[in-house]
Amino acid sequence: MRQRLLKNRFFLFIAILIQLSISGCEKNYNTVIDSPGSAPTIKDAYFSISVVNTDTINIAGQSLRSPDDTLTIRGIAEVKPISFGNEKEIPIVGFSVNNFNFSSPLAEGVLHDDGVYPDAKANDSVYSGYIGFQIQRSFIGAFSINLWSESSTGYKSNTLILPLQIIRLNHPPIISDLIAPDTINLSTTTTFYNSLKVLDPDGQDDIKSVLRFTPSGKILQLHATNDSIYTEQVALNPPPSLGSYLFRFCAVDRSNDTSNILTKTIVITNVIQVE
Fold first, then answer.
1. pTM recorded for the entire structure
2. What is the per-residue DSSP string for 47-77?
3. Residue 133's beta-bridge partner residues?
4. DSSP assignment of 147-180
5. pLDDT at position 36, please?
6. If 0-12 CB within 10 Å is exposed, 13-18 middle and 19+ buried, where does residue 75 land?
7. Is a pLDDT exceeding 70 seen at residue 92?
8. Is residue 150 a contact partner of residue 81, using CB atoms and an 8 Å limit?
9. Which residue, 268, 229, 262, 226, is CA-closest to 245?
10. pLDDT of residue 2
11. Of 71, 239, 257, 265, which one's alpha carbon is 20 to 30 angstroms from that of 46?
12. Strands in the chain per DSSP E
């Protein structure tokens, strides 16, 4: 009986030791950990362009557009990062321009909150700046404007991605409202005028030339008198032969696309009027 009692006390002692050992190894989760900072976040961001039709971009000094032209795409970005916790300032708001066809960003940089244009006001927590990159006119596809911020203690925010689509979508010019004489009497007329209206869906700067084609194969140019009206003064010197002449009119844009064609038949006569 005594041996059994000693044995039970021994097992009880071992159990108490095991329990004390386990309790000593447990972590105290009530300890307060003071974090040195926290990551900002970006919720609001804006980029001034979302779709660019590169067939509306002309290069100064060039009358034609070439697929090999190097174009600069540039817009204005605005970002409003939000800080949390003890963070009182966000020293960096960065951007990159990416496309899966390129192994590295086409452009990288930072935005500013300094009141220097295009930033509207200094220290208003809105970071602004130009974002620009270069591509060849022949390139089309989807780009991404990646925006992020970093706290003063080195914590980075989420990355906000804005889409940018590059397309080529040239539209030929359209001509209308042709005004030209039906008949010209050489006995009373030495000059006459032609005029027509020219509009280009890609902008009036896209119009390269407005032309008149004669039956003999000559190509003559009309000139702009205002934003959309093109005119031509024709001198009858030397006088043409009598008869009917069919003229064709068209416009050409900087991508060498031609407009619709308008035709006009002018009859040359020489009727001397007797008073």
1. 0.69
2. ES-SEEEGGG---TT-SS--TT-EEEEEEEE
3. 73
4. EEEE-TTS-B---EEEEEEEE------EEEEEE-
5. 59
6. middle
7. yes
8. no
9. 268
10. 46
11. 71
12. 41-47, 51-53, 70-82, 92-98, 107-110, 127-136, 141-150, 160-167, 174-179, 183-185, 191-199, 207-213, 219-224, 229-235, 243-253, 262-269
Q: Token pair for residue 129?
A: 């700046």
Q: Are strands 219-224 and 141-150 parallel, antiparallel or unpaired?
A: unpaired
For residue 237 the two structure tokens come to 């010197």
Rounded-to-10 torsion of CA 7, 10, 12, 18? -140
Given the structure tokens 């010019």, which residue do they identify? 173
Q: What's the mean pLDDT when you consider all of the chain?
A: 86
Q: What is the model's pLDDT at position 39?
A: 81
Place of tokens 């005594």: 2
Q: How far apart are CA 67 and CA 139, in angstroms?
A: 8
Please compute the mean of the pLDDT values over residues 84-92 and round it to a whole number.
69
In a 13 Å sphere around the CA of 126, the CA atoms on its Cβ side amount to 16
Whether 67 and 137 have beta carbons less than 8 Å apart is answered as yes
Asked if residue 74 has pLDDT above 90, the reply is yes
Residue 139 to residue 229: CA distance in whole angstroms: 34
185: which 2 tokens? 């009497």
Cis peptide before 163 (omega within 30 of 0): no
Reply yes or no: is the peptide bond before residue 173 cis, omega within 30 of 0.
no
